[in-house]
Amino acid sequence: MQKKLFATEEKIREIKSVYPTPFHLYDEAGIRRTARDVKEAFSWNAGFREYFAVKACPNPFILKILKEEGCGVDCASMAELKMAAALGFRGDEIMFSSNETPGEEYEYARELDAIINLDDITHIDFLARHGGIPERICMRYNPGGQLLIGTAIMGQPDVSKFGMTRQQIFSAAERLKQMGAKRFGLHALLASNAADNNYYPANAMILFELAIELKQKLGLDIFLINLSGGVGIPYLPEQVMPDIRAIGKSIHDNFNDIMFPEGLGGICIATELGRFMTGPHGCLVTTAIHKKHIYKEYIGLDACAVDLMRPAIYNAYHHISVVGKEDALCDHVYDVVGSLCENNDKFAEDRALPQINDGDIVVIHDTGAHGYSMGYNYNGRLKSAEILLHEDGSFSMIRRAETVKDYFATFDFCDILDGAAD
Ligand SMILES: *Cc1c(COP(=O)(O)O)cnc(C)c1O
What we know:
The structure is a single chain. The protein is α/β, with parallel strands linked by helices. It has 2 domains: 28-279, TIM Barrel; 280-411, Beta Barrel (Lyase, Ornithine Decarboxylase, Chain A, domain 1). Helices cover 29% and strands 23% of the residues. It has helices spanning 9-18, 28-41, 60-68, 78-86, 103-111, 123-129, 166-178, 199-218, 244-259, 275-278, 310-314, 404-408, and strands at residues 23-27, 49-53, 72-75, 94-96, 115-118, 136-140, 147-149, 152-155, 183-187, 221-226, 268-271, 282-293, 297-301, 320-322, 332-337, 346-353, 361-364, 385-389, 395-399. Helix 2 packs parallel to helix 9. The chain starts with 8 loop residues before the first helix and ends in a 14-residue tail after the last helix. The structure holds pyridoxal-5'-phosphate. The site of pyridoxal-5'-phosphate has 16 residues, from helix 10.
């Protein structure tokens, strides 16, 4: 089955003639389109905001595009907070959904007046010592058990390290109130890459019911329901994109049914989508540089798991296109591999593809989220550049490729590698 690339063969060749492979290529038009679709799907909620999960694609040029589309950011570390601050995100535009948080990060998040999303009850006193308890605060809920949709297991909160138990949410709310918090948000992330349109509404329902109970039992003033991320994308060619309009409508129906009658119709809905926002709008453009025939057929690329870890760590499927051979017969079976001295450095195993020759451009789809950002530097392999394809067809580099000098930069406190990168 085929999966279409967002850029034409001609465009990819043009970009490659300016910027050497490998690079991640992002589609500005697609990112803007999805941001507008999400906004539209929740337009029934006056206070709605998408807080883009920065970890999915932490590039300031991409964040700037999303900011222009009215998105906020969901940060989880000092570096993400600083990037957000540098781009002018402030206050209600920043969600700080961290866990195992260092004190200085809470302090900085408080300085920015970010919405703190508290992962654990023990963080209350910690936060009081590091930045202080704010007037508005969000709490992360873990309902335990399994999240079932019909008979399918969507998520396993019982083995997830995130969030507070039901009992703890109630205790935390009371304690936070005593310490000066006045307005509360509720957050839960119970699944990842959920293909099912029912995931997000199910997550919303759990939070709606909790909000109602907290209001009734504790008189809590709830201003925010944060549905977090987890909406999936079709990595496989036979999968379909979750229908964000239908998802938004289903949540709206539940909201009308149960929140309005409880006087909670004014609550703001937030999302922290990452994968859904940018995942399909990025791809990894590589060149086939070696061909190896032993017990299996191998195609060696100039990219490796440093550029995209998902296949290595999750055994995740990423579709592969050979540029210019989209319509050719897939009559060869290859393992498409990178250069790491690790046998899991395989973008695909036993994949039926057209014949690949040295020099062919091989594109790995759907790397726009949790792609570049997960990379590391194993084997001294350097991370690739990032290129943005603009709406008018022009393109620009939005991150240069790493150099050996970057790799050695953490020895700059001494002279042991002075001059070695030159
Ligand atoms: C990772 C994460 C997200 C985004 O998840 P996606 O699967 O990319 O949608 C949102 N919120 C929090 C707190 C996260 O950790």
